[in-house]
Amino acid sequence: MNIAANSLEHHWMPFTANRAFKSDPRLVVKSEGVHLWDHRGGQLLDGSSGLFCVAAGHGRTEIADAVHAQLQTNDYMSPFASGTPGSFELARKLAAILPEGIDHVFFVNSGSEAVDTALKVAMAYNRARGEGQRIRFVSRERAYHGVNIGGVSLSGMVKNRETFPVVMPNVVLMRHTWSPNERFVRGQPEGGAELAEDLQRMIDAYGASTIGACIVEPIAGSTGILVPPKGYLERLREICDTYGILLIFDEVICGFGRTGKAFASQSFGVTPDIMTMAKALTNGAQPMGAVAVSDKVYDTIVDAAPENAIEFFHGYTYSGHPAACAAGIATLDIYENEKLFERAAALSDYFLDKMFELQDIDLITDIRGYGLLAGIDLAPGAAPGLRGSEVQTRLFWNGLHVKFTGDCGIIAPPLVAERSHVDEICSIIRKTLEETGH
Question: Which cofactor(s) does the record list (predicted)?
Answer without folding.
Answer: pyridoxal 5'-phosphate
